[in-house]
Amino acid sequence: QVQLVESGGGLVQAGGSLRLSCAASENIDSFTVMYWFHQAPGGQREMLAVDRTFPVKALAYAESAKGRFVISRDNTTNTLYLQMNNLKSGDTGVYYCNGNFRGTEYWGQGTQVTVSS
User: Fold this and answer.
1) Fewer beta carbons within 10 angstroms: which end of the chain, N or C?
2) DSSP string spanning 34-100?
3) Phi, psi angles (nearest 5°) of residue 17
4) What is the pLDDT of residues 69-83, one digit of tens each?
């Protein structure tokens, strides 16, 4: 059973930073694509950032994340990261990682981020 486990959420002041982690139970380089999603209170789950390795390596960000967030993988720890800087109140919500492993999509359980103004 493939598992993705997020951590690193918490309470932070506006303008601060957090780094979210998503630990994978499998070799993280075997995930052809991995995402971070954000779900604001009462809102829908929205894609923030994508790290694709197939067919070519590519990174992409939602407009709300550009210039502030960075997605990355560490294949020594099998962990996906989301570095979040200059956080705003609108960044409050639950953050989920998602990955495609051998054709099947997997989700983590989410980690809560609260940004106080």
Assistant:
1) N
2) EEEEEE-TTS-EEEEEEEE-SSS-EEEE-TTTTTTEEEEEETTTTEEEEEE-S--GGG-EEEEEEEE
3) -130, 155
4) 999 999 999 999 999
Query: DSSP letter at 17?
Result: -
Nearest to 100 by CA among 42, 31, 52, 44: 31
Closest CA to 59 of 23, 29, 35: 35
Tokens of 31: 């995930």
Q: What is the mean pLDDT of residues 88-97?
A: 98
Cα→Cα distances 101→4, 44, 61, Å: 11, 24, 21
What is the number of alpha carbons within 13 Å of residue 49 lying toward its C-beta? 22
90 contacts: CB under 8 Å, gap ≥ 6: 40, 64, 115
Tell whether omega for the bond before 55 is within 30 degrees of 0, i.e. cis.
yes
- Which of 7-11, 50-54, 79-83 shows the lowest mean pLDDT across its residues? 50-54
